[in-house]
Design goal:
GO molecular function: peptidyl-prolyl cis-trans isomerase activity
Number of strands: 8
Order of helices and strands: HEEHHHHHHEHHEHEEEHE
Protein name: Foldase protein PrsA
Shape: globular
Number of domains: 2
Enzyme class: isomerase
Radius of gyration: 24 Å
Distance between the termini: 52 Å
Largest sheet: 5 strands, antiparallel
Pfam families: Rotamase (PF00639)
Mean pLDDT: 89
EC number: 5.2.1.8
Helix content: 40-55%
Length: 309
């Protein structure tokens, strides 16, 4: 009986101490950044490390990893801020209900919120921020990703799903800092100062350099990074694309020819990729809107990163 009362008291204290949609009050030093007045907590990085199966030693071994994870979280908070702006009181109620349900589930397992958070290598505030994000994001996807909207999304970029193929060549540079140099190469190609094949043989770091950068026919699923394949498949034949940045580096792509596919939305038997791409599109839109409406401030000493993908 005493044990049950202690657990109940813990739940009541958690609710009275503000474990709601607005979050706990955190010291300034606990924040890595702010979206308006809302903090992005350092403990959220610890939780993200745990969620991705990493360890604290991975952060020490790779100094840029912490900065990259911070960027992921700031973008998530921007998207959440945008969702809160859109949903108003209804969104706040969704978050409050989700956090209360999470608290009850944890306490019913026989652990305090703090004990459960410690098992996740984080703290209660970080877990609460995660619950807030997932509750509002999943509700948003439930409403937006219906069949009618998925079909509209398919039709705006059908070449990515209908079996379209493109015959491409590329010049690849692994160092993102070489963007200006690669753009100058592109200008020389456009000005007929050098052929694409000769430029690829001279500058490309890809295995296709010896073949003048020629890769051949590609589809939506292949060896090229998705962002590169998508840009090529949505371009016209005989087009030199703007430089595309991927997780591997920089890509200058020339589309020689295209074969248009004929698969329709009704022909799709598996919508998982389409749903994932549509969700990514919605997320990017929310991040962009969040950046427009909210200031991002980084804690002094934190590495500010561009808020790209």
């Amino acid at each position: 009986m005493i044990h049950c009362r202690v657990r109940l008291l813990s739940l009541l204290l958690a609710c009275l101490c503000g474990l709601t949609a607005t979050g706990q009050s955190q010291p300034e030093t606990d924040a890595i950044a702010w979206i308006g007045d809302d903090p992005v907590l350092a403990s959220e990085i610890d939780l993200l490390v745990h969620r991705r199966g990493l360890a604290a030693t991975d952060l020490k071994a790779n100094p840029t990893l912490r900065s990259a994870l911070a960027n992921v979280l700031v973008r998530r908070h921007l998207a959440l801020a945008s969702l809160r702006d859109q949903s108003g009181k209804a969104g706040a109620a969704i978050i409050d209900d989700a956090i209360q349900a999470w608290q009850q589930q944890v306490l019913a397992s026989g652990k305090t919120l703090e004990e459960f958070a410690a098992q996740q290598q984080s703290d209660v505030a970080a877990l609460q921020a995660e619950v807030a994000w997932l509750s509002l994001w999943n509700d948003y996807l439930r409403v937006r990703l219906n069949d009618a909207n998925l079909q509209r999304f398919f039709e705006t970029r059908s070449s990515l799903y209908d079996g379209t193929q493109a015959d491409v060549s590329q010049i690849f540079l692994s160092d993102p800092a070489q963007l200006e140099a690669l753009e100058k190469i592109a200008d020389r190609i456009r000005g007929d100062e050098i052929s694409f094949a000769d430029a690829a043989a001279e500058h490309s770091q890809a295995g296709s350099a010896d073949a003048g950068g020629r890769i051949g026919w590609i589809g939506a699923d292949g060896d090229l990074p998705a962002v590169v394949a998508e840009a090529a498949l949505m371009a016209e034949s005989e087009t030199l694309l703007p430089v595309v940045r991927s997780g591997l580096g920089l890509h200058l792509v020339y589309v020689h020819e295209k074969r248009n596919g004929d698969r329709s939305f009704a022909d799709l038997t598996d919508h998982r990729r389409l749903r994932r791409d549509a969700a990514d599109f919605l997320f990017e839109h929310l991040v962009d809107r969040g950046q427009t409406l909210h200031d991002v401030r980084w804690q002094e000493g934190q590495s500010e990163r561009p808020l790209g993908r």
